[in-house]
Amino acid sequence: MSAADEAKDFLSNYDGKNIRIMEVCGTHTHEIFKDGIRQILSPKINLISGPGCPVCVTPADFIDEAVMLALEKHCTITTFGDLVRVPGSEKSLADARAEGAKVKVVYAPSDALDYAAANPDEDVVFLSVGFETTVPSECLTVQQAIEKKITNYSLLTANKTMPGAYMAMRNATDAFLYPGHVHAIIGTSICEKLRDEYGISGVCAGFTPAELLVALALEVRGLEKGEPFFLNAYPRVVKAEGSPKAVELTQKYMEQVDALWRGIGEIKDSGLALREEYASFDARRKYSLPHITGRDNPACRCGEVLQGKCLSKDCPLFGKACTPEHPVGACMVSSEGACSAYYLYGRDL
Questions:
Q1: Cα(284)–Cα(199) distance, rounded to whole angstroms?
Q2: Band of the pLDDT at 221, cuts 50, 70, 90?
Q3: In this structure, what CATH number is given to the domain that contains residue 118?
Q4: How far apart (Å, rounded) are the C-alpha atoms in residues 308 and 325?
Q5: How far apart are CA 161 and CA 136, in angstroms?
Q6: Residue 15 reports pLDDT greater than 90
Q7: Which of 156, 251, 265, 295 could form an S-S bond across to 89 if both were Cys, CB 3.0 to 4.6 Å?
């Protein structure tokens, strides 16, 4: 019997205490749903989809800023596709595009820089969202813009870092399923610190069905022992030291700031913004954007879903007013969102 088969058998037949495990990675959320892993778990194992989708936790005021840049400052907005339909306080970037704004979908930050270089008469802004995995490539575009003297390019930042989220969510779960790609960048020392100083447990996991099953079995076995633990179940990619060069690049161009997470609130030192010496590439400062206080749809329960306080199907809008074709909340828009995953794969759970 393979390790994955043994893990599947153990997870299906587990009959110990009720436990909660939070995955804080949108890709984990979708893979767990898509692979049918939730269906084989013992009813005593409760999986919670946490705030691991960068689009889902991007606040409404960020979308409002992007819309202002597009419609009032006449900038060309370059962005990953998921952000186009995320609702702001009054409209989305899709709405702004329908009103004549220039919104261009790109597949990498380098595409946005290339577009700026090829169109020097346009003011190009890249919407810089995501966790530690994407930040180095966004910083690299600033470095290359400086080297190539491209002055019509800037970032509107809403980048987040995971350690603050772990601390904020620690009381909502018994253990975390740590995102393998994040810890491939930042390493595992933070997981060990959380274990040793705060009693927070977790397992770093890969993304295949076998890797997820083994990681979840390790979580449950660790929780059975009753002592804080950390295990790296993705050693082929995640190393203790992470990626020092990626971390160094991020620290050169970005600094920690307090950040607002949609539906959750402000988490101290959980965001990243360009340092003062790179202010000419910071769209907020470059275009003198005013402070904006965003407003979420009061009927949307994305924030509660992200905190594990309710399931997607508990929201009165889910599957009715809010669908992937006509999303009300960010969790339904993103391909990594918990509501999108639940809608596509889990409505019978």
A1: 39
A2: very high
A3: 3.40.50.11740
A4: 24
A5: 12
A6: yes
A7: 295
